[in-house]
Batch of 4 targets.
Target 1
Amino acid sequence: MPADIPAPTTTDEAPHPRFAVGVLAFCGVVVAVMQTIVVPLLPHIPALTGATPAAASWLVTVTLLTGAVFTPVLGRVGDMYGKRRVLVASLMVLVVGSVLCAVSSHIGVLITGRALQGAALAVVPLGISILRDELPPERVLSAVALMSSTLGIGAAVGLPVAALVVENFDWHTMFWVSGVIGVIDIVLVLWCVPESPLRTRGRFDALGALGLSGALVCLLLAVTQGADWGWTSPRTAGLLVAAVVVALVWGAYELRVPSPMVDLRVSARPAVLLTNVAALLIGFAFYANSLVTAQMVQEPKATGYGLGASLVVSGLCLLPGGVMMVALSPVSARISAKYGPKVSLALAAGVIAAGYVVRYFTSHSLWLIIAGATVVASGTAIAYSALPALVMRGVPVSETGAANGLNTLMRSIGQAFCSATVAAVLANITFLVGGRTAPTLHAYQLVFLIAAGAALAALLVTLCLPGSRTPAAGTVEESRNTPGDRKDGVRTMPIQEGA
């Protein structure tokens, strides 16, 4: 197994690492915002660009694809060649993508720009890895919790911000703003974030990266486009078969190479495998909240349940959830430090399920809808904070970037499956109202029940995790100045049993 080794000494050490947590969290929020920033714009894209609705949908699909592909790949590259270096490169790609979208109304250019923005999602696992390497033990859990929660915070913030821009400014403005903020992120990272001193030995597994990318593209294309192409169409079925075949060939190859793209033996450990399964289910459960809330409150009052809210109001419904995610990330860290991240994740899954129960029975009042959505977001905050702690518990320090990238990927796959499921439910359980077809209230309630079921499944998976060998505060992580013990070429960390 490759071991982590110190990087060559350089003179470009960032001068203000004490600000690294805030800077990396800000980068994570910006990158996460990019995932949802075009959602309010989608209904208007055909008129603005002359593209078909199917082509416009690729502005979301392509971001999901590139994020899924590049997140684990760049996490591995960061482990080998420098995490800050790769993080800065990812932010540069985001800036280029933002500028492309800002200067053009051609659908092809817009899709290319959105693909580049999606690739920057790797910033989150890279940031988690840097924090693990650089911070003193007592600060790791809270910092990693905040960094991981930025995925949910950005999703909650992105919709209302984008809605405000769409309604009040030229739509290109939000891409110019994202490009400028991306440049600010780069400057702040170079100023405040030190380069990790750890590297992983070995040669980058290019064939492994290609195989993983091929399997993911086939799977996610089938999932995201299956509703339009038909779930039994030759194209969808062919992609699903191809995904399975490529994944099997890729897995056999990865087990034979000395420095694999993904160490499947480590990933198959129950502590890692079940954590990734839980991440997929939590990603599914969380995303339903974002997908249906804005649409539900915008439905006309003639439906009997819709509130006829504006685009901006519907986006603002998710904002309290984003605030709670910021507030609860340190709470989750304290729970994990005292009782272990397994307890945190189980608690989070239960809270998410309870939030959907609230949503099931409170679909006619704006304030109760906001309350239910906020409960779901609160559970997600605790879950997203606990997941990287569980991952880091089960993998060597030398594989932190790749392992957290894989965990982030599983959340993205869960979101993709959720998007397909929600689209299928809302498109097939409808009725005519005011001369148009709209989803019934039962359709939305069914989505809530499915999402609650995913959360309960995540709870069951979490309970099956091995007994918590979780570090308490002060022992969760060795500091960068403490070499730690080595066994079989891999640095180990002092840990103690959680309560």
Target 2
Amino acid sequence: MADDEVDFLPGDGPTSGISVTLTAGTLQAIRERVGKRGVSAFLEKAAQQQIERDNLDELIADFDKVHGPADPEAVAAKRARLTGGTSGAGAAA
């Protein structure tokens, strides 16, 4: 069975080479952080994190459809508890 016929979770399965085009500034910033030989690992981790964010956004959207949007004041209060800040309306998201 070929690898493209098997469902792998993000981060699982064999590696596969592809060609990726990045702007010079983005590539430079990545290389400054991880060096020349760390670019692939950095991009793999970044892609996994983006997939996690997208999945979470989908879960939140589904929850909001069923239960309505979260109360902004309750979110601010819980954010303040988690971050040790104040629950004021001006808290950054």
Target 3
Amino acid sequence: MKIHIKGGHLIDPAQDIDAPTDLYIAAGKVVALGDAPDGFHANRVLDATGRIVAPGLIDLCARLREPGLEYRATLESEMAAAVAGGITSLACPPDTDPVLDEPGLVEMLKHRARMLNLAHVYPHGALTMGLKGQRLTEMGELFDAGCIAFSQANVPVADTQVLFRAMQYAATFGYTVWLQPTDLHLSSDGVAHEGEVAARLGLTGIPILAETLAIGQMLQLARATGCRLHLARISSRAGLMLIDQARLDGLKVSCDVAIHSLHLCDVDIGYFDPQCRTIPPLRAQFDREALRAALADGRIDALCSDHTPVDDDAKQVPFAEAEPGTTGLELLLPLTLSWAREMQLPLRLALARITSDAARVLGLDAGHLRIGSAADVCIFDPDAPVMISRATLRSQGRNTPFIGRELLGKVCATLVSGQVVYETPANDKAAR
């Protein structure tokens, strides 16, 4: 299949391209930018006039709920949601059922994803067996099976000795450890940010100390072992300050933030809205503003959707009993664009945080449209409205605090390895 994407405005942060440019694809690869190569005859022409042509989006954290949790979502539903949101590559944490702590489970997930022929899936292997924080997994075998990093998802490791040994193991073989910084004991009973809102509503709070204490411990272990550390879903200004200092000290540490943490704060809980129950919790407004600024200036490396499909029964209960999590795959692009507009940032910078910067964090050769690279492409209209509703979401998990909002940024077509896997009507024509 040879495809000509014509008339679009190409934005490729990795190549510093931000200009009207045609794109030519053959055999699943980018073969030319601007002018067609000699003898190129397109089988399809995608008309991108008035639209942005960008590398396919990369999501650092999306729970696909397989294996074992298909009543919440299936691989088919979530992969369809991913490509509808312009996402062509995603990393999934290991908190499935059973946990991704055996090579056979990883191989099965990779095989299922390949058979669907939609987005690329990059699993994280469990750091400890069953995520119980007691016994290390065979990281080498999991890496050979297709895991690109090792994680505890959002389950803290209480035993510091176990975490120390895990980071030593990872450092020996050059693996990256992904940890969500939460102190087990300070956060175990909490359901919301410890502050005025939680106090007024009578909700048990999770203090910022739960994050900063864990970050400090993790950074010290990374310093002692030389392990590459990624801190996932940072939620506080105080946590950012610790990471800033660690980088000044030369530690190999990166971090990300969930997209909902840029737009919401603890005030949005309102009158016990269970859609706003997340891990980590929505913090105070000044924390949200610090996260928005840090992402803009690069102190936070990348954005993620933190996509966590939850069934209705687990959300239609009192706030303290609701299961944490929101759907995010289809909202990543429009919410990123909204953040960029509000911060008055160039579109190229915003796209970098969900393409090339995200690829760098994952260690992938992706997130760009260089000649010879896989043709993973997102075509979108940045000014087209998108109404967020349960009826329009493709994810099986339709719980999000953004229901009812109208955002800007509509995905028109998504290509994965040169194949059109999602498109809206009337945006292409067959080549003659």
Target 4
Amino acid sequence: MNDLYDRHRAVLPDWLALYYEDPLEITHGEGRHVWDTEGRRYLDFFGGILTTMTAHALPEVTKAVSEQAARIIHSSTLYLNRPMVELAERIAQLSGIPDARVFFTTSGTEANDTALLLATTYRRSNTVLAMRNSYHGRSFSAIGITGNRSWSPSSLSPLQTLYVHGGVRTRGPFAHLGDDEFVAACVDDLEDLLGHTRPPAALIAEPIQGVGGFTSPPDGLYAAFRDVLEDHGILWIADEVQTGWGRTGDHFWGWQAHGRSGPPDIVTFAKGIGNGMSIGGVVARAEIMNCLDANSISTFGGTQITMAAGLANLNHLVEHDLQGNARRVGGLLIERLRAVAAGLPGVREVRGRGLMIGVELVRPGTDEADPRAAAAVLEAAREGGLLIGKGGGHDTSALRIAPPLSLTVAEAEEGAAILADALRAAS
């Protein structure tokens, strides 16, 4: 392992982060478990950063990929592609967007990049509204709208970005307010902001902020925002790269917790739909999707092998009601973690929805972030046989828990017990 780590450092960028003091090489997985090079088994509560959505080595996906690879792997979007059309039909129907069109990419970053291109072209404006504490990818334009300093290495941007309050419920200037008052204050702030700028193209928002530590506003905030946006002709882009496909349990899409005023104009997706295969994409109303007046293709977006995987994965997800499982098992897991946290002064909050759970850590007796504790908990959890993630934005530090949606009750109990021991050890 040390040899591989040395080779990694010799040829890969210094900024390419690795977890753990002794970095881990995962060799294979099955169900909700993965194994390392020494044969040790781990319960996986992070799923390749929310990407292995259903299960490792899911037989239906493995079979679909193998059979498609034996026929043809790739031909580009210059040719008709049956698996791409079939998956686009399913996603258009599930999106909730009327007269929907779907464009496939290779990642969530590229999906958000495409959504920004569509919105700015359609609206003839390069001003974009984004949420504080947000993360939207690593491309030049996505970095330019990311409201999280830890993931934004450049101040240069092709866009003018204005940041809006509301993505973080329990911190910031409105944290002391009740939910209704919080929403009203954020709406007032948005309306005031729009009075000081030229008309923006769109608001882009994650229903639950992923990299930012699984934070979210009260239900209905983005519906209230949409009422204001529509008055100004401004588009709403829902970044569902992490929240889509039933992960939040209560809804198939995260935006549906804010659906009172109708669906978003544009939805972006990626990660879980491919169950590890590289799929991203954009869903938008036809008039928006078709607004580009120049040719465009995608060499690798929508390639046959990834579309076959996505179709098999989506079918499995729906047929086995994994959204319902996320709601039931995720609710149990949150309950267990909150019971543990109640006795630990270093845990500020356990939050989340379905199988998207954040545990925010602070220095005991303060409200200050404790990134050292987060790193220590990650290490202790690994020693106990559990893999989790971490994140956070401005002066926050959070553990990120997002197992495959097929997680069983027994596995949730096991993972909660390991994480409880890790939290106590780091206290």
